[in-house]
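As agreed, record minuted below.
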Amino acid sequence: MASDVVIRPARAEDEREIVELLRSVWSRVSEPGPERPAGAAVFDERHPVESYLVAVSGRRIVGYITQAPASPLETNRHVRHIQGLAVLESARGSGVGQALVEAACAAARAGGARRMALRVLGHNEPAQQLYRRCGFAVVGVLPEEFLLDGAYVDDVWMSRPLSDPQEPAHR
């Protein structure tokens, strides 16, 4: 990772910059949903500011990650789910994404979680490579789950244990 990048918890005042980041990197390669409007809120009841970590270089946010419980059920509170990850185009390839994923996993582990899971579009190979480098493995695929710009795209589910960062993921 670039030596001047710091990973820290997000703050309420980061919201505008996170929205700008999201809008700058939005594409059908990584997002099945619509593009976020310029004035849209990022933090809400389902996505509280406490669930976000940001990567900061100088005074600029160059990436973010958010995680949350996999469901509201108490019976699977030990599973966390990465709900979003974005890195500015200019910061890609510098280790920012991997640092964010590892920081989110460490925070989840410190909070008592045993497993981290995520979903990624089947055609988003760069993201899948990043997650594999971070110890995630494919645990399921929903074929043709999304119709994006006239093409069907798989929804790939990935997971990794949090008990030992080096332990390989398994079902």
